[in-house]
Amino acid sequence: MGIRRFFLGLWNFKTGRRMGRRLPLAGVLLTFLLLSCSSEDQPAHQPTEIIIDDLGIAHIYAPNDEAAFFAYGYQIASDRMYQMDMFRRRALGRVSEVLGEESILYDQQALVFNWKYWGSLDAQLMQENEPDRWALIQAWVAGINQRVSEVNNGQAPLPWGYGPDEKDFRPEPWNAADPVIIQKMAGFGLDSSLQFEIASTFANQLYPDKMGQVDLFQPTRSHHCLPPEDRLHLQIAQSVQPGTPIWRPHQQLEICEGAQRTAFARSLKHMSALGSNNWAIDGRHTENGFPLFAGDPHLGFGFSGLFYAVHINSADAGGTFNVIGFSFVGAPGIAMGHNDKVIWSPTSAFADVMDMWEVPISQDGSTVTVAGKEIATIQRTAIFTVRSAGGSVGEGEEHSIDVVEVPGYGVVIPYLIIGSPVPLAGPGKELLAGWRGFAARPARYFLELNRVQNLDEFEAAVLRMPEMTYNFVAADRDGISYRVGAEVPVRDTSADTRKPWVVMDGGDPESFWSGEILPPELLPHSRATTRGWLVTANNDPFGFTTLGGLDRAPFYYGAFFAPGWRAARIEEEIERRLSNGRVSLTDMEQIQMDTHSNLADDLLPILDQAYQQIPNDPALSAYAQRPDLDILAALLLTSWDRKMVRNSSGALAFQVLAHLIAEEILANDISLLYHKVMTIQPMGAPYFLKLAVLALRGEDQAAASMLQDSKELTVLKALDATASYLTERFGTVDPTGYRYSDLRTTNFDGAYGYGSSLPMLPTDGGETTVNVGPSSFYENTSYSDNWTSIWAPMGRMVGSFSEQGEPFARVNFPLGNVADPTTPFFNNGMDDWLEGTYSHLPFQRMDVEARAQIRTFLSVEDNQ
Predict the structure, then answer these.
(1) Using CA atoms in the order 625, 629, 630, 632, what is the torsion angle rounded to 10 degrees?
(2) Which residues lie below 8 Å from residue 128, measured CB to CB, with a gap of 6+?
């Protein structure tokens, strides 16, 4: 296969940008490079046209679907080759070949969970059953490999990340199954509840008296993804008398029969990363009379790196794709975006598709006893190379890890990749991990969504994607929809020992999966026909976490949801705007950028009450006539607007106060657990901040029992500690002496691939804000020198519909779309992302032409 690239190299870079500040106008460069060809040199096929716009986004206009995906692969490899390479190495267990000892854990995880093997089975299944989809994947791989070949043959420069002053190695060709293997790894990362289950088990084992009775899952706000009219599940659960066993798989399915089934399965007839948000409002409530939509997936930079924005159009030439938006770099498909009829975005659904059991294992590891049955294991030794300091890639010390697999059940997890300070299984036992992904699955990924033409097709597509544990929210011109299609195992949680949110007894046959999965009618779905809007923010979809125990739920779906702060704020802001009229696209942008601290709404009224009681309560006399505390109280209770923004002194003081309140309540009783959890980004801190709030409110008696003093004395002790912290750190409590940006930063390392180093910048947001930005207040058991976040919105998008029914979107995203510092597109998006400035995402050809910066023609020839 040969390739030719023709340039009508139109450049018109009006501005350049460095990280965080604008560069002066350097002038306009116009270059026209016209390549004339003789008739015998003309491409054998119609070339694919690629237009790069002023955001650095590639718009691909291809003669057919396979040509579009070839160009898609070629272009993403041209723009993000190092990031793609390292993401693939992460899935294959080969990162240490490049990065050395710092990435050993990455490779151990990949080899233990064997993503390469399971992903290869997915690829084989696709090749056999869905050859058209397989052909698109292979066209994408061929495009990548063409660019790799050009680099290695010297026809194209060595991309950023590979040079002798960087990681000093060369790219390798991709194999046919690599994108599907990467999808398998991405699915594992999305599905992973193991770390939560480990933390819960650790809590119960180490502090059984304190944590055994705490309701870890009770939210701070009872706001749920499903609108009230779609929570029949919750109505069933609440109608049952306390103490009555209400869960049985077949009984629950019977509940769905008859008249009640209609409410569950209303949308079936149409055959729906802790910090993501998406929501939609139907046309009844909007200024333009059409649905409004918003999505902003949050991820850690160290996992997948930045999203890649792209537009794929083969439809103009008779193909089937015309879709634009944001994609992961490891596999093709638009994760958040729109086509010519539908707009969509995901958030992590936190459906529980993983479990762990402690099981007896023979001394030589050859057998494991599962539910009383002795099972022969598969033992393998996985070997990987760790690059020596100063050595070449692929050369270094060989490391190995022994793996024990239990056919039909899962894999034994070695303690070295768990990180727990105490054993989580009894003597002679090991931890067995099960995952729905330990099987061949369709692996349809986001491609299933990219061609849907209405909400019926959208919901059907989500249900055909069991590997995607996402809350998908979508809109077309006529309405909005929420759908989950995950494979959630049916479980029996009626016994006290069967709690899927902790390590379970592997001797109990009923604790293992039966093979059944929750049917579609029990998975979250809604069209919001009564209320008219949908909101998801990683929160509990049903309301089961408000029942006083998950064992009271009619069935088990999941446990580890966000505390509800973000979802509540979004709904409150929607309702506030609706009370004054209709919602606009600008309103959607403002809500998406909202930095109001929900946590401050919980804690500051208690501080205010305590401060007012000082003159009258002898127990609080130590805090009377304290000018430093008066200054802080005035700042937090009067001056501060409760927004977690960079230039705010109140935001910094409150961040300190909130964490020291949690420390005052929790750290003495559960010190080791407290600091272990609070240093986990981004999941840890919100859970213990939530427990502190519940304790102060008295809503969780077990949490409230951790209070050493009255709630008033507790918060005043924390205020005193805050004054000491600020004085030690800044020499003053005076608000003029510090700002949130002095400590709160985002670390972008890894955004363009594992091992890529980028500057840190002050950013807005906190643990509980809609524009969420969790950071590390602690480093082990000490206070951090900087509150660093490694988590951010990978892209923000809001959208609506034209009179013709076609979606349109406005976006901003961090850094830029091209991982090459010599181009204008390396960080040209950063200022807008930081400030919340949105740009129209060009989709119509005339809009693309108006913003064209570079034009390329790509022609593929068959040389056989």
Answers:
(1) 180
(2) none
3-state secondary structure 98-117: HHHHHHHHHHHHHHHHCHHH
Kind of pairing, strands 744-747 and 787-789? parallel
| Residues 77, 80, 83, 88, Cα dihedral to 10° | -20
Please tell me the predicted confidence (pLDDT) of residue 265. Answer: 30
| pLDDT over 90 at 273, yes or no | no
Retrieve residue 784's tokens. Answer: 């951090």
CB-based contacts of 684: which residues, under 8 Å, 6+ apart?
676, 677, 678
Q: Residue for token digits 């000892």?
A: 101
Domain spans in the chain, listed from the N-terminal domain onward = 2-96+105-191+808-822+837-861, 222-297+335-352+439-592, 354-435, 598-791
Give the span between the Cα atoms of 556 and 491, in whole angstroms: 7
What is the Cα Rg of the chain in Å?
A: 27
With contact defined as beta carbons under 8 Å apart, do 525 and 272 qualify? Answer: yes
Confidence at residue 9, expressed as pLDDT on a 0 to 100 scale: 45
CATH code reported for the domain at 2-96+105-191+808-822+837-861: 1.10.439.10
Q: What angle do CA 453, 456, 457 make, to 5 degrees?
A: 50
Reference 420, options 607, 629, 202, 575; nearest CA is 202
Report pLDDT digits (tens) over 182-224.
999 999 988 878 888 888 888 888 888 878 778 889 999 988 9
Angstrom distance (rounded) from CA 380 to CA 681: 32
Question: Taking every pair of C-alpha atoms in the chain, what is the biggest distance, in angstroms?
Answer: 97
